Amino acid sequence: MAKLKKPKHIAIAGNIGAGKTTLTEMLSKHYKWIPQFEDVDQNPYLNDFYEDMPRWSFNLQIFFLNSRLNQLLEIQSGTETVIQDRTIFEDAQIFAPNLHDMGLMGKRDFDNYYNFFETLKKMVKPPDLLIYLKASVPTLVGQIQKRGREYEENIRLDYLRKLNDLYNNWIENYKDGALLIIDADNNKFAENEEHFGEIISKVDATLFGLF
Length: 211
What we know:
Elements: E1 9-14, H1 20-31, E2 34-36, H2 46-51, H3 53-77, E3 82-85, H4 88-101, H5 107-121, E4 129-134, H6 137-147, H7 157-172, E5 178-183, H8 193-208
Parallel strand pairs: 1-3, 1-4, 2-3, 4-5
Helix pairs in contact: 3-4, 3-5, 4-5, 4-7
């Protein structure tokens, strides 16, 4: 039997408040993978963006694109398996189109941004496994309130709902690699060991099972 290639890149995708960071931490600990998180504290645009979205949306998205591209290039040149909290795809397939649809990013900026993403996409490989945390808006709102980040207090429900629609549409059409969907409404992995065990079993089967 051919030796299975060791996976190098696991990515966790999901809306704001879906539990990406928590699951990234738990899986990295379980598998001894190196975690990579979204650097929200070091983002110089985030507070301004939530104050005035039309003014700062393009700047914010370019900042995210650059930082995630850097992460991907690091992953590809490294030898360890890395688990990433949010992917470069989500910026381009969900957050930027949403800003454009809501009139918070002009067409010229959006086209410029999206064309830039398409160029960058040719330089990087998709993850060996994408884990999607699928959550309803009430679940997301509950988690956001629980963690109490100041800049998230003003997030509107229609914004979250629209993001969810874009996420579900993206995942339905995702063909770039192995995909695992976790129902975050019912799987409470953060506080339930059995639920986390179910995720581990699915990850094991997807990554290390005999295909």
